[in-house]
C-alpha cells in the first residue's frame, strides 16, 4: 500500500472512477485538494459562481450518463452549491459535490467561513458525509459514486475538513462496495408484471405517461416496443420529453398545466394510465382529475414515488428498462390506435407576418433536424421549447423540471458540451433567466466552449408577467426588466459573436449564420411582452 495525503487519495479515487473533468472554484479550505489536482490529468473548469459548477456537472452527467463532479470551498462556496444540488436532487441527476471545511477542531465554533453544509443539504441529497476519520476517505468516495449512480440517481455531498485533507493515510481502493441497508431494487415483481400485462391487454383506452425515469434508465427502446405492439398513445412530463421522438405517430405531447391540449385530452379519456418514471406532481397533472374509473400502473425505481400523488392499482418497483423488457416478453399485439381522433386535433399555429417564438424554434428544428442537444432555462421559453422543438433522441432535451431553476440553461449547456463535444449544443433562454448566471459567459470565453445561445428578449419576467395580466387585472409589479443591457454589446465584451433578430423575414438567414459559426454564438430574438406561453 502506498502512503499519501488524503487530498492526493481523493484525486486517485476520482481517477479510478473514470472522472475526466471537474467543475468548481478553489478556496482556502479546499486548497490541499486543488494542489493534489494540479499534477493529475483531470481537467478542471473554473466557473464564476459555485451554483454554475453544479449545473455544469449536471449537464455533463445528463449527456454522458456518468457522475458529474463539482468542488467548492467552505462557507459561502458550499452554500452557493445548494440551489444546484437541490435542482439535481429533484431531477434525479447523479452528482458528487466535494466541499472543503474548516479545521476539525474548529467545527461548531462559528469560525471564518464555517457552515454546516451537511446539515443544510440533508433534505435534498441522497446522502452526505462529514469526513472526520482520514482513513475512511477512500471508502466514502467510492460509496458516494455508487450511491449517486444507482437506484434513483441523485446528488451526494462530501465535506472534508482542511486538516483531514492534509493527513497521510495508507492508500488502498476496496474491491467491492457493500452498504448495509442500501440495496436498490431493479427487477420488478413477476406477479405485478403479470397483473400489468393483463390490465394493458384488457384496457380499451390505455395511455403511457413517460417521465424522466425512462430516459435515465435508458428504456426508450423498450418503451417504443411496448407502445408500437399495443398501439398506445404516449404523453410525457416535461422531464420525459425525448423518451420517444416527438414526431412519433403515437406521441401526443407534454401533459399538465402548460401541456398540449391533445395530451391532456387523452389523459382525461383513458381507462388505464401507465406511469413510467414519473411522480405526476401538480404541474404535470394540471387541472386533470384522475377518476375512479381509471386504473393506474405505476413503474418506478423509487418506491417512495409510487402512490405519492396518485392512487395506484398496480405498483411495480424496479428499473424501467428491466420492467418494460419483461412486459414486452409477455404482451400481445393490439390492432387499433384508439386516440387517432385526438391526434388529429393538433393545434395549427398562427401564420402571420410577426416573428413568434415558435417560428424560431421550428426553424431551428428544420435547420438541425434534431441533431443537437438542447438545454433550457425556466420561464415561457422553456414551454415554447417543450412544445415546438423536434427532439429526436432521449437525453437531448435538458431542463430543470422539478425545482424550476432559472439560470440553469447556460451552465448546463457548458457541461453538456464538455460531455459531448461531438454534438451541437443549443441553449434556449430568456432575458430574465439569462441574467441569473450570465457571468458564465466568462467560462465560455476562457474555455472557448462553442455553444449556441438563443435568447428570447421580451423585457419581462414573462411567465409571472402573464400571470399578473390574467389574475391580477394587469397590476404589474417587479416583472418589467426595463434595465436590460444591450445583449450584443455584452456578448462582444466576452468575445462572443452575436446577432439580433427582430423580423420574420430574416429568420432563416439568422439560424443559418448561427449554425455555421465556428465558436460560441448568441442569437438575441426580440419578442413581444404579450406573446402568450401557449398560443
UniProtKB/TrEMBL annotation:
<keyword id="KW-0808">Transferase</keyword>
<dbReference type="InterPro" id="IPR012001">
    <property type="entry name" value="Thiamin_PyroP_enz_TPP-bd_dom"/>
</dbReference>
<feature type="domain" description="Thiamine pyrophosphate enzyme TPP-binding">
    <location>
        <begin position="377"/>
        <end position="525"/>
    </location>
</feature>
<comment type="similarity">
    <text>Belongs to the TPP enzyme family.</text>
</comment>
<dbReference type="Pfam" id="PF00205">
    <property type="entry name" value="TPP_enzyme_M"/>
</dbReference>
<protein>
    <recommendedName>
        <fullName>Acetolactate synthase</fullName>
        <ecNumber>2.2.1.6</ecNumber>
    </recommendedName>
</protein>
<dbReference type="InterPro" id="IPR029061">
    <property type="entry name" value="THDP-binding"/>
</dbReference>
<feature type="domain" description="Thiamine pyrophosphate enzyme N-terminal TPP-binding">
    <location>
        <begin position="4"/>
        <end position="118"/>
    </location>
</feature>
<feature type="domain" description="Thiamine pyrophosphate enzyme central">
    <location>
        <begin position="193"/>
        <end position="326"/>
    </location>
</feature>
<dbReference type="InterPro" id="IPR045229">
    <property type="entry name" value="TPP_enz"/>
</dbReference>
<dbReference type="InterPro" id="IPR039368">
    <property type="entry name" value="AHAS_TPP"/>
</dbReference>
<keyword id="KW-0100">Branched-chain amino acid biosynthesis</keyword>
<dbReference type="InterPro" id="IPR012000">
    <property type="entry name" value="Thiamin_PyroP_enz_cen_dom"/>
</dbReference>
<dbReference type="InterPro" id="IPR029035">
    <property type="entry name" value="DHS-like_NAD/FAD-binding_dom"/>
</dbReference>
<keyword id="KW-0028">Amino-acid biosynthesis</keyword>
<dbReference type="Pfam" id="PF02775">
    <property type="entry name" value="TPP_enzyme_C"/>
</dbReference>
<keyword id="KW-0460">Magnesium</keyword>
<keyword id="KW-0786">Thiamine pyrophosphate</keyword>
<dbReference type="InterPro" id="IPR011766">
    <property type="entry name" value="TPP_enzyme_TPP-bd"/>
</dbReference>
<dbReference type="Pfam" id="PF02776">
    <property type="entry name" value="TPP_enzyme_N"/>
</dbReference>
<keyword id="KW-0479">Metal-binding</keyword>
<comment type="pathway">
    <text>Amino-acid biosynthesis; L-valine biosynthesis; L-valine from pyruvate: step 1/4.</text>
</comment>
<dbReference type="InterPro" id="IPR000399">
    <property type="entry name" value="TPP-bd_CS"/>
</dbReference>
<dbReference type="InterPro" id="IPR012846">
    <property type="entry name" value="Acetolactate_synth_lsu"/>
</dbReference>
<comment type="pathway">
    <text>Amino-acid biosynthesis; L-isoleucine biosynthesis; L-isoleucine from 2-oxobutanoate: step 1/4.</text>
</comment>
